[in-house]
Amino acid sequence: MKLSLPEIREESFEVKTSIKNIKKMHAYQLELAKSQEKLASVQDGTLEELTKAIALDDMSVINNAEKFITEILGLNKKEVDKLQEFDRGQFMNLQSKLVLSLQGYDDDQIDTMFTEEVDSAEKKVQALKNEKSTTTTN
C-alpha cells in the first residue's frame, strides 16, 4: 500500500503487509491492551492514583504509537522530528490507518471507515446540541 504523507516526505511510503510488519502490529496492539489493563486496575483508586495512571497511559500510548509508526514506515531522525509535530488527531489517525492497512483493508475501505466515524461523531454532537436546546427551552 502506498501512503502519502507530504508533511513528512515528498514521495509516498510503501507499507508492506509482510508477516514481519503484521507481527509488529500485533505487538503494538498487545502493548495498548496491557496499558489499558493497568489503567483499569486503578479505577477504584484515589484521584491522585487515577491522574497518575491516566498520564502514564497517555505517555505509553503515544510512545508505543510513535515507535510503531517509525518502524513500519522506516522513518529517519529528521522524519521522526516531523512526525512529532503532528497534532494528536493526525497522529492517531495515522496509526489507525497503518493498523487497518496491515489488517488487509484497502484505501477505499479505510476512507469509508474514517468518513463514517466522522459522520457518526458529528451526528452525536448535533443530537447533544438539540437535546441541550430542548432542555433549556422547557
UniProtKB/TrEMBL annotation:
Pfam families: Phage_TAC_3. Residues 111-138 form a coiled coil. Keywords: Coiled coil. InterPro entries: Phage_TAC_Siphoviridae. The keyword Coiled coil applies. This is Phage tail assembly. The lineage of its organism: Bacteria, Bacillati, Bacillota, Bacilli, Lactobacillales.
